[in-house]
Amino acid sequence: MNLVVLPVSVRGNNSRFVDLAVKACESARHAAGRAADMIASGNIQHLSAIYGCESLLDEIDREMDEAVVFAVSESTVAEARELLVCLKFVIDLERIGDLISSLNGRAQAIVSRLATQDRHDLVKMATLLERMILDAQTAFTERDVNRAVTVLRSDAEIDRLRNLIFIRHIEPKETGMAAGDIQVLFMAQALERAGDHAKNLGEEVCHYVTGKSVRHILRSRDKSHEQVFLDWLREKHEKSDKKPQSS
After folding, report:
1. DSSP class of residue 4?
2. Cβ(184)–Cβ(114) below 8 Å
3. Chain centroid to CA 3: how far?
4. Which CATH number fits domain 11-235: 1.20.58.220, 2.170.150.40, 3.20.20.140, 3.40.50.300?
5. pTM of the model
6. Residues 155, 132 contacting (CB under 8 angstroms)
7. Is 244 or 110 the better-scoring residue by pLDDT?
8. Which residues have a Cβ under 8 Å from the Cβ of 73 and sit 6 or more positions away?
């Protein structure tokens, strides 16, 4: 697994921790991709790779947890803020790894005989999760708010797919719910919860770059994620236009 090399401008004294956060992104994204492949093909040989990603994420989490406290105490305010973003990234990514790994037991029982529509929707959920993690990683390394908003938007689609799966399997049936139905619901729920953690990554980047809390603004203004940051971008652009031009 190749480690992404960050631009010099975002490395500084936090090089080790930024690298850990990026490595965690790569590992979680790889796990999501393998889960999508496993569900699509019905081949449980992907399970060992998913477990390997989970193990690596656990190691990264332990290393980050043991070292970041001492690093923060010796950092400037700006450096400390970046360190905290790295820490929060690793926490959410480690949880994503756990949730994807939880699919393994369910998949072993039913993945080879999933209904066509369930297979399609679960693959799409896992693929969206993989993309969300990549977008969050890119948003962090490039300080790209627009890319972070894309992460938030993708989470709504994962929620929609989860809801469709639940409707199909929870609607009253003459024979009641089968064991396979329950396993599919658990798989869908695990991917939806992983999407929530990926959304946290996008929100964290938005807060880090803009200094504004997405959730606080949403509660006070009842606006969508996209509208909040479109308003912020518009405000920033207007302020830039009003600055006096140098002669």
Report:
1. P
2. yes
3. 18
4. 1.20.58.220
5. 0.80
6. yes
7. 110
8. none
